[in-house]
């Protein structure tokens, strides 16, 4: 099917109105990216505050339309509805097999000498290594982002010896599955997104693991179950807790995550920008002895052991 793209540049305060206008005139989707005016520099959006919906000062909106649409009519309507009058640019979207294009550009990733992440449709480069089969899709965690890669590197160096794991913010399940393939006894996956729980189960099956080894829960369901299992502590504890989320939630959830770690157990935290590392460590340092910080492309991984 052929498509047309309509590009509109806008300042932040006009983005919402333009997005609504594009959808009303028939756009099947609207995407946003930063627009960098000539002479200015990129202004990356990092981690937003809670409840904040961040936008660039200048954005480019792209509306996707059926190629048979009336471009002149749509342009006229938008010019009447949007103030100030926008500059509109139409462009034909090249027709491709987008699924094939995406699959061809996703390659196996070597996280350590003995650990690879492999698309399920490609042959693992090293059949003797631990190969985690993954289909990127519904949830975060493919190994391409530095935060996930750093966690996978750490996992490859651990001795699991039938240990129990809690993967808080499990996403695609990539970290918990890696732990199981490397010898962990069981993983409890927790995520606020129901789609992540679906993705984790799919990837568990893809790696020929037993779903009973990797049960998944929404946070409230896990808390209720853990309270029933362990009324003394009020929460289920594990030998290792993994949490690859963001710095803000890691700080807010610090007490919960600490309580999930057995005394003497290990914790692995990621999704943290280098400049946020000290704040995150301060939230845990009364109970965790931290290892040296590991950094990749401006992101860091914090690991340590619970001593009290």
Structural summary, described in words:
The structure is a single chain. The protein starts with a strand and ends with a strand. The radius of gyration is 23 Å and the shape is elongated. The protein is built from ten helices and 15 strands. It has helices spanning 15-24, 71-81, 98-104, 146-156, 174-181, 194-206, 219-229, 247-252, 254-260, 277-284, and strands at 3-11, 29-34, 58-66, 88-93, 109-112, 115-119, 130-134, 164-168, 186-190, 216-217, 238-244, 261-273, 288-290, 294-296, 299-306. The longest helix has 13 residues, at 194-206. α4 (146-156) packs parallel to α5. The protein is of the alpha/beta class and 308 residues long. The strands form three sheets. Strands 8, 9, 10, 11, 12, 13, 14 and 15 form an eight-stranded mixed β-sheet that branches. The protein has a four-stranded antiparallel β-sheet with strand order 2-3-1-4, with helices on one face. Residues 230-235 have low confidence and may be disordered.
Counting DSSP H or I runs of 4 or more residues, the number of helices is: 10
The pLDDT mean sits at 88
N→C terminal distance: 61 Å
Unreliably modeled segments: 230-235
Please give the radius of gyration in angstroms. 23 Å
Largest sheet: 8 strands, mixed
Give the overall shape.
Answer: elongated
Number of strands: 15
Structure in a nutshell:
With 308 residues, this protein is an alpha/beta fold. It contains 10 helices and 15 strands.
């Amino acid at each position: 099917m052929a498509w047309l793209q309509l590009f509109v540049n806008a300042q932040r305060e006009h983005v919402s109105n333009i997005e609504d206008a594009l959808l009303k005139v028939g756009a099947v989707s609207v995407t946003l990216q930063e627009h960098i005016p000539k002479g200015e520099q990129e202004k990356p959006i990092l981690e937003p505050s809670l409840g904040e919906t961040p936008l660039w000062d200048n954005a480019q909106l792209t509306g996707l339309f059926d190629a048979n649409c009336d471009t002149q009519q749509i342009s006229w309507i938008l010019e009447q509805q949007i103030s100030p009058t926008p500059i509109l640019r139409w462009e034909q979207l090249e027709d491709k097999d987008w699924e094939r294009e995406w699959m061809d550009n996703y390659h196996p990733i070597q996280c350590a000498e003995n650990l690879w992440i492999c698309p399920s449709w490609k042959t693992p480069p090293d059949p003797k290594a631990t190969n985690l089969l993954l289909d990127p899709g519904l949830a975060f965690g493919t190994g391409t982002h530095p935060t996930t890669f750093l966690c996978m590197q750490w996992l490859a160096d651990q001795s699991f010896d039938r240990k129990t794991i809690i993967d808080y913010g499990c996403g695609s399940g990539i970290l918990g599955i890696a732990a199981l393939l490397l010898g962990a006894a069981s993983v409890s996956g927790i995520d606020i997104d129901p789609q992540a729980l679906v993705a984790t189960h799919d990837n568990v099956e893809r790696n020929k693991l037993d779903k009973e080894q990797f049960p998944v829960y929404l946070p409230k369901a896990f808390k209720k179950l853990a309270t029933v299992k362990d009324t003394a502590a009020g929460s289920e504890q594990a030998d290792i807790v993994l949490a690859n989320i963001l710095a803000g939630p890691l700080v807010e959830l610090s007490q919960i995550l600490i309580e999930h770690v057995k005394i003497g157990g290990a914790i692995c935290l990621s999704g943290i920008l280098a400049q946020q590392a000290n704040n995150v460590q301060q939230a845990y340092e009364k109970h965790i002895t931290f290892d040296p910080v590991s950094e990749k492309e401006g992101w860091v991984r914090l690991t340590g052991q619970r001593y009290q």
